[in-house]
Amino acid sequence: MFEPTDLFERGVGDATDIVQKEMYTFEDHGGDSLTLRPEGTAGVCRAYIEHGLHNQPQPVRMYYTGPYFRYERPQAGRFRQLRQFGIEAIGDGSPNVDVEVIELGWSYIRSLNITGTTLRVNSIGDSECRPAYLDALREYYRGHIDEVCDDDRQRLERAPLRLLDCKKTQCQRIGDAAPKSTDFLCDDCEAHWISVIVLLDGLKDTYPDLVYSIDHRLVRGLDYYTRTVFEIEPERTAGQSTLLGGGRYDGLIEEIGGVPTPGIGFALGLDRIISEVKSQKGFVPPEIGPDVVIVHLGDEARLRASALAAGLRDDGIKVLVAPAGRSMRAQMRYSNSMNARYALIIGDRELESGEGSLRPLQDDGDQSEVPLTVEVIAKALRGG
Ligand code: HAM
After folding, report:
1. Of the residues 223, 247, 280, which one is the last residue of a structural domain?
2. What CATH number corresponds to the domain at position 226?
3. Predicted pLDDT of residue 280
4. What is the distance in A from the centroid of ligand 1 to the CA of 41?
5. Largest pairwise CA distance in the chain
6. CA spacing 20 to 30 A to 57: which of 79, 128, 131, 368?
């Protein structure tokens, strides 16, 4: 949940918005500076080094999910505590892994019946070819310095890539005509990029609707990226709507103290995925209620209900006992509101006869009388 601050400063990058403005950083009692994780990749790489995962078959494929923290201006789709699901494949620099990772992200989104999304890809080169590109960018933007926003003016010398990312209309126009990173790739990055494109085209047999565009303004907001970067977002919205973003980070592990090791991955924002699923009325997981709610009338029935519930739970049945001291009607209402499959009714009459009434709540089946033993009730609930 938190890491040494230094990990993000070195990994995510000193000049990024995340490190400059968005981290929740505090000192612990020993005087060490810690930061609530703003993202997952740096921590996964730290763990890869710390636990000697280079000794396992490469690439090591990992996933993670949980809360992440960014001090951003809260608005629709942008939270200070967000939930991510992410994957990383560490230890293989081949373009096949790039496309495997992209494919996994695309198929996940499709599996939720989210449609109308687009994939944007770009290559931002590596430490060999990027310096020349950054010089060209600086030179270009210096010629347009009066036309870009104040923020961009300040960022130009420190972080020229960020200017391409600016969401302001006037800056986007200037960014559109800026030099493209793909025109500056060294031979190795160029060969990698061409392979990624060819492999991506090969996915179209499986995903005919996989429309991707090459977007030279896609640079991502974290400094660790090299070569391939990508994002998936809904077509119709702009701004805070990116569902999933990722890319290759071949220099990160070395940067944080490991031996040079390539890696690639993505993270998706679960909060945004959930709201997209809802707005598209896509896959909504069924609400899973208990198998049975035990409805009980009288003190003796309450004791019996509790003992039966323990036995049924031990047998793997999901069971609730309706709240005590309420009328039969109120307890039945409760059973329905819990989305239970059955109500098992125990009153004086049932205690006397030794049989309870098992009433189906979700279909029209008949009520049946069942002996009040764990074995028989469990069997009846399992459909036997
Ligand atoms: P990221 O683009 O910063 O990448 O975040 C990934 C996703 O998290 C975004 O596309 C978005 O859906 C969600 N997200 C980010 N910030 C917020 C927020 N404030 N509120 C709600 N959702 C948000 C990373 O974090 C990289 N670690 C991804 C990666 C993994 N690259 C390589 N491996």
Report:
1. 280
2. 3.30.930.10
3. 86
4. 10
5. 93
6. 128
Q: Are residues 223 and 365 in the same domain?
A: no
Yes or no: say if 149 and 175 are a contact pair by the CB < 8 Å rule: no
> Hey, what are 104's tokens?
């996994």
- Shared domain for 192 and 105, answered yes or no, is yes
pLDDT tens digits, 20-57? 999 999 999 999 999 999 999 999 999 999 999 999 99
Residue 333 has pLDDT above 70, yes or no: yes
Q: What's the CA gap between 4 and 26, in Å, rounded?
A: 10
Q: Within a domain: residue 219?
A: yes
Does ligand 1 come within 6 angstroms of the Cβ of 88? yes
DSSP H helical segments within 112-202, as ranges?
Answer: 130-142, 150-155, 161-164, 169-176, 187-201
First to last CA, the chain: 46
- Å from CA of 222 to ligand 1 middle: 10
| Burial call 255-290: b when 16+ CB within 10 Å, e when fewer | bbebeebbbbbbbbbbebbeebbeeeebeeeeeebb
Are residues 193 and 95 part of one domain? yes
The residues near 181 (Cβ < 8 Å, ≥ 6 apart) are 122, 123, 124, 125, 130, 133, 216, 219
24 and 116 share a domain? yes
**Under a CB-based contact definition with an 8 Å cutoff, are residues 360 and 341 in contact?**
yes
314 domain residue, yes or no: yes
Q: How far is CA 212 from the centre of its chain?
A: 21
Question: Count of CB atoms within 10 A of residue 355's CB?
Answer: 17
Does some domain include residue 169?
no
336 with 222, same domain: the answer is no
- Please work out whether the CB of residue 230 comes within 6 Å of at least one atom of ligand 1: no
- Domain of residue 96 covers 2-129+185-280
Strand partners, 89: 61, 264
pTM of the complete model = 0.85
Q: How many structural domains are present in the chain?
A: 2
pLDDT single digits (tens) 66-111 = 999 999 999 989 999 999 999 999 999 999 999 999 999 999 999 9
With a 6 Å cutoff on the Cβ, whether 40 touches ligand 1 is yes
Ligand 1 atom closest to the CA of 41, numbered from 1: 27
Q: Is 245 in the pocket of ligand 1 (CB under 6 A)?
A: yes
Q: Which two tokens stand for residue 239?
A: 């701004």
Show which of 280, 310, 325 is a domain's final residue.
280
Three-state secondary structure call for residue 144: coil
Considering the domain architecture, whether residues 254 and 232 belong to the same structural domain is answered as yes
